[in-house]
Amino acid sequence: MSRSVSILGVTGSVGQSTIQVIEELRAQGRDIPVEAVTAATRVDLLAEACRRLKPKFAAIADPTLLAQAREALSGLDVAVGAGPSALEEAGARQADWVMSAIVGAAGLAPTMAAVRRGALVALANKECLVCAGPLFIDAAQAHGATLLPVDSEHNAIFQVLTHPDRVERLTLTASGGPFRTWTREQMASASPAQACAHPMWSMGRKISVDSATLMNKGLELIEASYLFGFPSESIDVIVHPQSTIHSLVHYVDGSVLAQMATPDMRIPIAYALAWPDRAAVSTARLELAKLAQLTFEAPDDARFPALKQARLALSRNAAATTALSAANEIAVEAFLAGRMGFLDICRTVEDALAHLEGAEAGLLAKSPSSFAEVEAVDQAARRAARLIAGNLAAA
Ligand code: NAD
Ligand code: MG
Question: Rounded to the nearest 5°, which phi and psi values hold at 231?
């Protein structure tokens, strides 16, 4: 296999795991030239990624860091850009395969640049799909781009989706997050550090908090619906604390196919990078006897309202899912900055959607029909969530 690649969000948790996979495959003699890499603000990590990967182009999102990035990358024979246009250039440059691993809706424009030129797009960033929804899927189809899901649950489904027309249901598994056994009272005073201490996965802070509220599973429900074309009613969520079964597909003959593996993002990343082949990666192997048992429990809607909020938005329309994800980004940011409590995250999302419903009802009346409309809904939801977060902080 020879495949040129770009990595959007190379300094993050998924980005770093992607570097590891590339290095391991290069050591096996595979040719994987790197075209472009991007980072938000971490010039030091961007420079380290460039030393390891030797890309042709590096982009830093924060334009005020351009001089610093140039300095750090001097002598590496890499062109350097900054700001939104540089991020988009990273997606647009000719790489066969693009890892979309920026967090949040900020990943949408650079990922769309890769979609528009018909690339293989390894999709870790779920928010950009949740944000743009059907428009994103339609664009991929129109431009001949191939979406390779990297989110472990969606990667699992993708791996066992042998007969898409003969599917009865999908089941997404959830670890349950760090607060699976906590009471609402305990959660009310949970700190950012506690919310980020995920029992099974080591991830970026935003997705870690989403895992603690179960909003991550809500976003994944929406992601699965848009990616695979199933309505909310056909997708179940089950809590599976061992995170060994990554999701399941139920077929019309009663067969259920699941993908299992140790919880390690290098597995779905390697799957996407080698697709449609498979590559040897040195991840820990599943030892069933050591695991001893796999357990399952229904998610508790009373303690974790996010899942229901996401389901409601999904059954409404794509404007509601755009707004849900945008409001959640603002709420998580406020929680991580210590400006609100853990339980205020879901409250803020709910109030922001209710506020839009009242004040700007037109925005949520129908699914956006253009990316400009997506942007308008996203911005309105952020404004509403900031307002509510501000009131909570002042109270
Ligand atoms: P992270 O916070 O560790 O990394 C995020 C990356 O995005 C960094 O490279 C950062 O520099 C970049 N970034 C952040 N804000 C940016 C902005 N405004 N503009 C440009 N770049 C920006 O996050 P992560 O855990 O690697 O997750 C990345 C994405 O993958 C998320 O959407 C997450 O939901 C998804 N995902 C992650 C995991 C995981 O195990 N970490 C698993 C499944 C899905
Ligand atoms: Mg996931």
Answer: -75, 165
Pocket-forming residues, ligand 1, beta carbon under 6 Å: 9-15, 39-40, 42, 61, 87, 101-103, 106, 124-127, 151, 201, 203-204, 206-207, 265
Domain boundary assignment for the chain: 5-150, 154-262+283-291, 317-394
pLDDT tens profile 99-144: 999 999 999 999 999 999 999 999 999 999 999 999 999 999 999 9
Determine the Cα–Cα distance for residues 208 and 342; give it in Å rounded to an integer: 12
Q: Which ligand minimizes its atom distance to the CA of 107?
A: 1
What CATH class has 5-150? alpha beta
Model pLDDT for residues 218-256, shown as the tens digit of each residue: 999 999 999 999 999 999 999 999 999 999 999 999 999
Domain 317-394, CATH 1.10.1740.10 — does that match? yes
Question: What is this structure's pTM?
Answer: 0.98
Choose one of 6, 14, 131, 219 to mutate for the ligand 1 pocket test, by most ligand atoms within 8 angstroms of C-beta.
14
Q: Are strands 256-260 and 167-174 parallel, antiparallel or unpaired?
A: unpaired
Where does residue 144 fall: left (phi above 0), alpha (psi -120 to 50 degrees), or beta otherwise? Answer: left
